[in-house]
Amino acid sequence: MFLENSRDILNLVSAFAVVWLTVFLCWLLYYLVMLSITACSAVKEIRDRVRAVEEGIKVIRERFEQAISSLSFISDGVIKLIKYFVEPSAGSEERERSKKKSK
Predict the structure, then answer these.
(1) With 20 labelled, which of 38, 58, 67, 88 sits at a CA distance of 20 to 30 A?
(2) N- to C-terminal Cα separation, the chain
(3) Mind listing the pLDDT tens digit for each residue in 29-81?
(4) Does position 90 have pLDDT exceeding 60, yes or no?
(5) What is the DSSP string of 66-91?
(6) Tens digit of pLDDT for each residue in 69-80?
(7) What whole-number distance in Å separates Cα of residue 96 and Cα of residue 90?
(8) Three-state SS at 85
(9) Residue 55: Cβ within 10 Å count
């Protein structure tokens, strides 16, 4: 007969235990691999979003720098305009004073 003594039963139970342990380890390994794939894709997505934010900040910074340089040119122009209008009038006032004194 197939099961002649208790050692045969022990071997049969041990074989089933090894089979179930192998199935469980394969299942665990599968889920660990799927978890690592999901984590990898999540990290990639986070990297892409961070890269997009960095590029946005870079564009904003470049535009801000351009605006600052434009404002610098505009402020220089306004200062020259003010000097152009203020200095001749100051010169003409002095001329008028000198004319009044000479009369």
Answers:
(1) 38
(2) 148
(3) 999 999 999 999 999 999 999 999 999 999 999 998 888 877 777 888 888 88
(4) no
(5) HHHHHHHHHHHHHHHHHHHHHHHHHH
(6) 777 778 888 888
(7) 10
(8) helix
(9) 10
